[in-house]
Amino acid sequence: MASADPRKKWAEFLARHKLRATVSRRNVLEAIAQSPGHFDAETLRLRLKGQGRRLSRATVYRTLALLQGSGIVRRGQSAAGSAFYKIARPDEPRHELACSRCGSVQEVPDQAVSRGLLDLARRAGFEPDEASARIQGICARCRAARRK
Questions:
Q1: Overall pTM surpassing 0.85 (yes/no)
Q2: Does residue 107 have a pLDDT over 70?
Q3: What distance, in Å, lies between the first and last C-alpha atoms of the chain?
Q4: In angstroms, what CA-CA distances link 19 with 12, 25, 62, 121?
Q5: How would you classify the pairing of strands 73-77 and 83-87?
Q6: Domain segments of the chain: what residues?
Q7: Strand 132-137, strand 94-99: pairing
Q8: Is residue 2 very low, low, confident or very high in pLDDT (cuts 50, 70, 90)?
Q9: Which residues pair with residue 10 across a beta bridge?
């Protein structure tokens, strides 16, 4: 069973896929671990650059893709279509309310929804790893602004 510690999980993933644990990959993982919430690839690259670590965009994007494949980060998409990432928390349900007007994405943890989605998948003969739901609409702030 894979470890819950992201660094150990990352090392196991790289070894399993016969990939090198490069300094660049380690720097990206460390920067992500220091991120308080959502982040995008360019913000991450600029943060690394500010720390004196110059990484190409390609390296950042490739490493994010690997981290996503390992289950350490999750990729989301704003209502406007831009990608963002965050540290994956396996015990945290991932459901999103996405505003199609302002582009905000609000995460809503709900164990009952997760259980329902997992049950639905199993009844269909599918073996799920995780379950998430995304609801597109208009957030309360935009609805209030529309009424004024």
A1: no
A2: yes
A3: 54
A4: 10, 10, 12, 32
A5: antiparallel
A6: 1-90, 93-148
A7: parallel
A8: very low
A9: none
Top CATH class, 93-148: alpha beta
CA 124 to chain centre: 26
Distance CA 121, CA 139 (A): 29
Per-residue confidence (pLDDT) for residue 72, from 0 to 100: 87
Coil, strand or helix at 144: helix
Amino acid found at 100: S
Using DSSP, state whether 107 is helix, strand or coil: strand
Q: Report domain 1-90's class.
A: mainly alpha
Residues sharing a CB contact under 8 Å with residue 139, sequence separation 6 or more, in sequence order: 97, 99, 101, 102, 104, 106
Sign of CA dihedral 57, 62, 67, 68: positive
Give the mean model confidence (pLDDT) for residues 10-34.
91
Token couple for 45: 């690259």
CB neighbour class for 142 (10 Å; exposed up to 12, middle 13-18, buried from 19): middle
Please, what is the Cα angle at 132 between 30 and 122, to 5 degrees?
Answer: 120
